[in-house]
Amino acid sequence: MAKVIKIDDIFVYIGQEDGSMVKVKKDSISWDVQVGENVEVYESNNEIVVSRFIEKMASSIDPYNQNLNRVNKLTYILLAIFLGGIGIHKFYAGKSGIGILYFLFCWTFVPSIIALIEGFVAIGKHGDSNGMISV
Fold first, then answer.
1. 3 state DSSP class of 3
2. Which of 55, 105, 115, 126 yields a CA-CA distance of 20 to 30 A from 10?
3. Whole-prediction pTM value?
4. Domain boundaries along the sequence of the chain
5. What pLDDT, in 10s, does the model give residues 9-18?
């Protein structure tokens, strides 16, 4: 991986991992390159090709928590508020183990309180264009 270190009117200067620097004409890059941007540099037959470096994440939802599932926001909120005390919203989200715990302890009303909080937290989440949120 290389990094753009300087841009002037004609050239883009790219620092490579081995400490060397590549100078490429600015008009040969097809996007609006920025200083500090990570790029990939390919050299072939005395021609230098620069492409954007795109980091691939393990999950596009949340790279730090792989246990998130995508659910319909409105359905999840309604289930959490009205049937959350018995864990229905957890079953809907694909978290059956926690759903069973909610069901087993529903007589204590603790799951009902937690489910209400989860429902209100879901209200504050921004859904995607299909109305889906991560839970």
1. strand
2. 55
3. 0.53
4. 2-52, 70-134
5. 888 888 888 8
Rounded distance, CA 113 to CA 7, Å?
A: 56
CA 28 to each of CA 47, 51, 84, 90, 96: distance values in angstroms, whole numbers, following the listed order? 11, 11, 57, 52, 54
Mean pLDDT value across residues 43-51: 78
Angle at 61 between CA 55 and CA 64, to 5 degrees: 75
The pLDDT-based confidence of 65 (bands split at 50, 70, 90) is low
**Dist CA 56 CA 32 (whole Å):** 21
Average model confidence (pLDDT) across the chain: 85
Amino acid at position 114, single letter: I
Handedness of CA 45, 48, 52, 55 (dihedral sign): positive
